[in-house]
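User: ok so my PI wants both of these folded by tonight, can you help

Assistant: No problem, let's get them done. Here's the first:
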Amino acid sequence: MNILFVCTGNTCRSPMAEALFKSAASRKKLDVSVKSAGLFAPENGKASLYAVEALFEKNIALNHSSAPLSKEKIEWADLVLTMTEQHKFLARQEYPDDQEKIYTLIEYVMGGNGDIADPFGGSLSAYQKTRDELEHLLKELAEKLSETMQ
């Protein structure tokens, strides 16, 4: 299964989600490939230093270059998980033929509505809070997928 995480600039939330989910999926021995992209991301931008630091605290390396969302990435993905309702709306608008595989992370995992707060420009503690929220959701996602992929 190919999973694509999407945020705005692909420097904070979606790269953190990609790295955290790779770790969670590895622990569950899931057969998944994971990438991330941003709706307004530059090509080859650097991950936020605080995103790198927040993951380092969990012994997860973040070697990341940003990438814009593209038709190729959408077609590669079996599941596209956005960080906000607005990201989902924009992605579905841009790629109407692929709407059925685009969800917010919270919607797909928990069945509800809600956004992952953007820590961009904030303090390390803001990144840690986002990391912790993502980590919880991504453990749930790994559990959900391990049940359906068996």
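One down. Here's the second:
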Amino acid sequence: MALSRSLRRTNSITLVLALVLAIGFIFFLFDPTSSSTPITAQQRQEDAASHPLSPPTKPFPKKHTQGRKGQDAPPPVVHYRMNELTASDSAAERGERVLILTPMMSFYQQYWDNLVKLTYPHELISLGFILPKTNKGNAATLALQEAVSKTQSGPIDDRFASVTILRQDFDPPLQSQDEKERHKKENQKIRREAMSRARNSLLFTTLGPSTSWVLWLDSDIVETPTTLIEDLTSHNKPVIVPNCYQRYFNSEAQKMDVRAYDYNSWVESDIALNLAAEMGPDDVLFEGYADIPTYRSLMVWMLPENSEDLDPRAEVELDGVGGTALMVKADVHRDGAMFPPFPFYHLLETEGFAKMAKRLGYTCWGLPHYFVYHYNE
């Protein structure tokens, strides 16, 4: 019996709708953003870089393609859509990759334990380290490699996307890395020039086309909120830094206490600008020394009298930043902001970086009521 014309029309529409629903269901199943399940080893393998010369910001398998006569195949031609790369206040939800960079003189297990506890998806985190070629640097490298090996062979959720370890090709200017020796005013210029070179070497070697954020985390930062990356990126600022304090035993009060540590995050003053104007071209103005009164507003002192008034999301615009835990949008570095190893407007390293970022049109921000803690030697 032949079907009526109206029934044939209804049947065609039904088939089209069913086809659309089926395609939508398949897209939902295979869309990586539609699933909240943990990433699997197979997914990590599929996401891996395809050649030894690929940028070190993705997982990299040991096996790679070989060409004719057993020789390594040439690297593939890869097109990166940089205009589609985001750095937003929803970093984890958008799958934005974070590069954590650490210049390391000594290895502290508390630093590594804190790193592993970070709740940002580890498959989106790449790590980069640079260490000096000294006896102490050799010992730190061995300890770091052992920690990396243990974590990267452990539970999948703890493993990081990739790890790069570099060794400095120049000698550190100070033989002693004792905290008091490091912070002597007469040692600041040569020490921070060397630190700038190390930071730049690490940055230029590891920054890849898929990196959205760069977190500079010093190796002696041993305590942060586990949500450090989510918290900092949620402000969606080009450059942002938390307040760095230090826990210590207060012998007068006979109890554990905290004290300010990083004085490099500040708001500029007219007095400091006048001091700089009278300096020679190679002179540097350092913060935190009593015999150089700059009268800058230091973020370490921007605290309310009542601890109940602390607001972890309170923001303040800064002119100088410290590097103990510094979050930077990768595009700020791509646009040319680095750590000057030379006097830049009479500033060096992280403070010079802040000045350079501002000259490029970016703003720098601080979180005076949000704390990370430095190791107490």
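The chain has ten helices and twelve strands. The two ends are 92 Å apart (CA to CA). Good luck tonight!
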